[in-house]
Specification:
Length: 140
């Protein structure tokens, strides 16, 4: 007769690693709506203990239930399944050409936005001066 582990096991993705020896793991589980029968993704975030501070944002990990380690920590990182590839780039390094390559829809929106400022320039010409006359009447 073998003794089975009663500890729960979850698989999730690390979403935060800013704390010392602690990571936040998001675990997705599909759940069916009782009335509409649509499958909904339910995301639960667990704080897990990472003894060696090895986990980084984007890693797929397996967490195991354990005794309470702090007020919110009841899980421990058992293993890192795959390493996540997170590209860090600062906002100053992003150019309009880079944005156009990533999202061609935004390029069309930017063209529409460029047309609107031209209309505003025409409206500025017909501003009312303090005497009640428009600029066109004073110049002519």
């Amino acid at each position: 007769m073998s003794v089975e582990s009663k500890r729960k096991i979850r698989h999730g993705q690390v979403v935060s690693d800013g704390m010392d020896k602690t990571v936040v793991v998001a675990v997705e589980s599909p759940k069916r709506h009782p009335l509409y029968k649509k499958t909904i993704k339910r995301v639960v975030k667990y704080k897990a203990h990472d003894e060696k501070n090895e986990c980084r944002v984007g890693d797929k990990v397996r967490i195991v239930e354990t005794r309470p380690l702090s007020r919110e920590k009841r899980w421990r990182v058992a293993e890192i399944i795959t390493r996540g590839e997170v590209v860090e780039i600062s906002p100053e390094e992003i150019t309009r050409e880079d944005l156009a390559k990533v999202t061609p829809e935004k390029k069309a929106k930017e063209e529409v936005a460029e047309v609107k400022p031209e209309k505003k320039a025409k409206e500025e010409v017909t501003e009312v001066e303090p005497e009640g006359k428009t600029k066109e009447e004073t110049s002519g």
